[in-house]
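Hi V.,

You were right to ask for the full record rather than a summary. Here it is.
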Amino acid sequence: MSSVYVPEELKERIEFYSKVHGKPMWRVVMDAMAFYEMFYKGKLEGKTGETKFPELAKAVWYIVKLSMAVGALKADTTPQRAELLQRAIKQVKDRLGVDTSLLERAAYDYIQTKLSNDKEKTNPELQKDADIELTNALKLVVLDILHNMLTKQESEKQLD
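Predicted structure:
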């Protein structure tokens, strides 16, 4: 038996999936590694850089893009970063057909609360709530992106 030291957040996630799926923690890690290896071993074909998993790659691209835009906005709420997030949201909505209305509203609320609190230093709890609202809205959009990708793959399998 050996030990691996990981950040507490990762350990908590491993424990969560262990309980949800009724598997020992080492099995959760092994499954994650198998998925990682499957994705990266099969990722590149020749020099074209085309992935064997185009829908997954597309979903991951937009998830990362949205997540980074939200993180940038939280780190420094500027009009440029707000615009960056709005463009990313619009792309997900238009290109993936995902309902982003909750994320749009949460981003708007976050910006308004941040601007108000920066000026008046009124209620830090409101900012915390807006932060949580934005994070939860992002998670819902990420889940929708993945759900749409998996549903599309499943329907394609049934057609074959």
